[in-house]
Structures are given as structure tokens and as C-alpha cells.
Amino acid sequence: MSEIERLLTALQCGDGQFPAGAFAFSWGLESLIADGAVLRADFPAFLLGQLECRWASFDRIVVIRAHEAAWDIGQLCELDDFVDAATTVDAARLGSKRAGSALLSTHHRLGIPSAAAFRQAVTTGRAAGHLAVVQGCVLAGLGLDRMTALTVSAYSTASALSTAAIRLGLIGHLDAQRALLAARPFLSGAIQREDADLDGASSFVPTADIAMMRHALQTQRLFSN
Predict the structure, then answer these.
(1) What share of the chain is helix, strand, coil (3-state, %, to 5)?
(2) What pTM value is reported for the model?
(3) pLDDT single digits (tens) 63-84
(4) CA dist., res. 114 & res. 143, Å (int)
(5) pLDDT digits over 180-209, tens only?
């Protein structure tokens, strides 16, 4: 794959129009906005917090390990079991599985080789198909190197949260772009980190986690979590 092809592939996978299922999830943001806990001026800090304390410290490591094991279904299933056990909030666990299933199904229908075997493991109940595991698996199958795969994963996470904030009326499109620009230096550094030890993987976003747990109690909901 040429550098131009790799770039085009990354842009396609990170595009908000790519049918990855992310549009259905706010990861606690909807409840936080309803409670008045996150205001327009707070969004850049909220976004950075999610990227630093959830994506970089947990998802990033899982994507790396899944990218390395893309053709080893046994290792992928073990990694998926780890994510399932480590995701203690039911709403987050369900959201990760649903988003992962949607992304895996899309890549399977597009004929991406690494998607077929893992999808079979998911459909037969051998694996749950968590989002970060699916990302690492299918992006490796597309021929993307580790750093490019991490870039797609990071941008997809940041973009999904920004889009949710726009749909919820918290921010405008320019606000979203400013927040993404502000997060770019952090993401650049996180993507280049070498650590990928599962023993060091952790997620600590208690405010968002509690908001996801409370989300089911809302009478009107736009998102699944």
C-alpha cells in the first residue's frame, strides 16, 4: 500500500459518514448536559478528559494489542474477554459491544479479510466484539500500520463525542473544531507512546460513567448511553 493509499484509507475510516455505529452513543454526555454538569465552555475540557483518561489509558492499549493479533482469533478473543471484564459499567460495556458489532459488520460487508474470522467468533458467542478490539483488528486488515490505526481510533473517538455534543445542542460546528484542535497536541503524543501493557491499562472517567448509569432513567433520550 502506498502512502497516499494509506492516507486515503485512514481518512475514509475516520470520516463521520463511515457507518461505524458511533452516532448512537454519547458515552454519558447526554445525561451530563441534561443535569447542567457540562456547559458549552466546558466541552473542550470534557473531551480532553475522555481522551486522556479513557482512550489513551485504555482503548489505545487495546487497539495496539488487537492490531498485533489481528490474524490470531484466539488472542483476539482473550483480549476481548479482558475488555469485557475491565469495563465495569453495564452501559459502557453494552455500548462498546454494540458499536464494535456495527463496525465489524460494516468491514465484513466491505470484504476486509481480518473482519470475517473475528465476526464469526462474535456471532457464535466466542467473543463479545468490543469496539477497541474490532478497531485494531479491522484496521490491521486494511493494511494500516500501528500508528495510523491509532490515529484513526483516536480521531474517531474525538469526532464521535464532538458530533454528539453538536446533536445535543451543546456546541456548534466551530466549537467542535476548536475542541479538536485543542486536543490535537495531546493525541499526537499519546499516539506515539510505546507502552502497551494490559496490566497498566485503566479507565477513570467516573463522572461520565455515573452519567451513563443514570441515563436509563431519563424520560427522553436521543442516545443509547
Answers:
(1) 70, 0, 30
(2) 0.95
(3) 999 999 999 999 999 999 999 9
(4) 10
(5) 999 999 999 999 999 999 999 999 999 999
